[in-house]
Write a structure and sequence with these properties.
Layout: E1 2-8, E2 15-20, E3 24-29, E4 33-38, E5 50-51, E6 57-62, E7 68-73, E8 77-82, E9 88-93, E10 100-105, E11 111-116, E12 120-125, E13 131-136, E14 142-147, E15 155-160, E16 170-173, E17 180-184, E18 191-196, E19 202-207, E20 212-217, H1 219-224, H2 229-232, H3 241-250, H4 257-262, H5 267-271, H6 275-280, H7 287-308, E21 327-329, E22 335-337, H8 338-346, E23 365-366, H9 368-381
Antiparallel strand pairs: 1-20, 2-3, 3-4, 4-5, 6-7, 7-8, 8-9, 10-11, 11-12, 12-13, 14-15, 16-17, 18-19, 19-20, 21-22, 21-23
Length: 383
Amino acid sequence: MVKLIHTLADHGDDVNCCAFSFSLLATCSLDKTIRLYSLRDFTELPHSPLKFHTYAVHCCCFSPSGHILASCSTDGTTVLWNTENGQMLAVMEQPSGSPVRVCQFSPDSTCLASGAADGTVVLWNAQSYKLYRWRTRSSVFSVGIMWSGLPSQNLGCFSYPYLRSVDKSVIVYDTNTENILHTLTQHTRYVTTCAFAPNTLLLATGSMDKTVNIWQFDLETLCQARSTEDQLKQFTEDWSEEDVSTWLCAQDLKDLVGIFKMNNIDGKELLNLTKESLADDLKIESLGLRSKVLRKIEELRTKVKSLSSGIPDEFICPITRELMKDPVIASDGYSYEKEAMENWISKKKRTSPMTNLVLPSAVLTPNRTLKMAINRWLETHQK
């Protein structure tokens, strides 16, 4: 089952693209803007919309860590943005000057590819913002870019006509059986884009009706076809040094950026840091600061551990970060392990573990649907 849970209607013209990170949704439009929304409640971020492009914005995409957003436009530029504050990091001009139709980060965040309407494909260094190399193909309507998963210089390019769903619908298929799972028909004009969230049961669809619809899938659909797990396993471990720096700033640890860069701390190194290495190798003297860094790193480690175990993140309790046995729904709308949430509330923590807002009520409701889904998953995966 799938249901429409939210409609965004902030753009003033056709929506051309939408993209998810682990915490944000980005949309771009013929109205020359890019908009950013929180996945927590779909409110627009204070620094949104992002404005620079002088013509239609055709594509937007997040770096693997989600800390950087790229956008490209008919004006012939590809722009990099800091998603934390909306600051423009770089403007990269297509050598041919042709309208840029698509952009895509490499899996390791080191490179960004941009493809233009005249068939030119440019590979940029995503850290220095310098042109690495470019090539020309025959003139096409649009250019698609697909990274191979090998070193970042290896990418595939393919040409295709610009396509729209002219019947105004979105069709969701099971990739294993090729059966149609859902047909979504809420848009009133042609559908131009769609994107799945990497770590939640959400689908975003954009249209020439100027809206973006947010759809939520049930857990049964997740168990039938879980196609984003491989993408999730790249979380944190594949961060570049620049991604780590951006993460530090997001955690209010920007004073440590210089130290981490000096010691060449990338995503893999970040996960291996200990209290000893923070004190002895990185020379962080403040005990409170070391404790804060370790606490943030442990959150990342827990995330990676849950993903590598193959357990769907929706089955993990946000408090214990373990597989739930008796899930309950709290008044904040999130599900938790019953005992963990009861302990949380008994310690007079009347705030939500997820939002930090005051809980309207201490009532906990059994989440039987989630419990059944967990039991089915266990039967399938732990025989």
